[in-house]
Specification:
This protein has one domain: 3-layer Sandwich (Rieske Iron-sulfur Protein). The chain starts with a strand and ends with a strand. The chain has a six-stranded antiparallel beta sheet with strand order 1-9-8-4-3-2, with no helix packed on it. The chain is built from no helices and nine strands. The chain has 104 residues and is an all-beta fold. Strand 5 and strand 6 form a beta hairpin. The structure holds FE2/S2 (inorganic) cluster (FES).
Amino acid sequence: MPEVTVCTTSTIADGTAQRFDVEGHRIAIARVGETYYALGDRCSHEDFSLSLGEVDPETCEIECARHGAAFDLRTGEPMSFPATQAVATYEVIVHGDAVSVVLP
Ligand code: FES
């Protein structure tokens, strides 16, 4: 499973998410404090970019900006309607200031 460095820790402001296109995978990386989470950047409801949504550091969720479905950043599971299916998750590894994702 290839590990690909996508950005540095300072690229993503705390409490936000950004989209990265990595070897054919469209990935949203979200930051909560010093922890980084990677999800497939396609809402399972209508294929909208999750990285445009809002990160909630308290619940560790991201809310789709289109219709408001929330997804758990740790598991990709939908936490509210209208989404009913999980999105992909990717392992994130931080070495120093390099943020990498592990591709399947
Ligand atoms: S596209 Fe995300 S909730 Fe509808």
